[in-house]
Amino acid sequence: MLSKIVGSAVPVLAAFAAFLVGALMLLVLGASPLDGLKAILDGAFGSGERLAATAVKATPLILVGAGISIAFRARVINIGGEGQIIAGALLATVIALALPDLPSVVLIPLVLLGGAIGGTILGAIPGVLKAYASVNEILSTIMLNLVMVQFMNFLLRGPLIDPLEIAAGTRIPQTQRLSDNAALPTLVEGTRLHLGVVVAVVAAVIAYIVLWRMPLGFRLRAVGHSPEAARAAGINVERNITYALAISGMLGGLAGAILVFGSEGQRMITDGSAAGFTGAAGFNGIVAALFGGLHPLWTIPSAFLFGALLTGATQLQRVLQIPAALAVALNGLVVIFVISSARFRSYIQSVIEKRPSNRASEDLERPYSKIPGVDT
Question: Transmembrane ranges (predicted)?
Answer without folding.
Answer: 12-31, 51-72, 79-99, 105-126, 138-156, 193-211, 241-262, 274-291, 298-316, 322-344
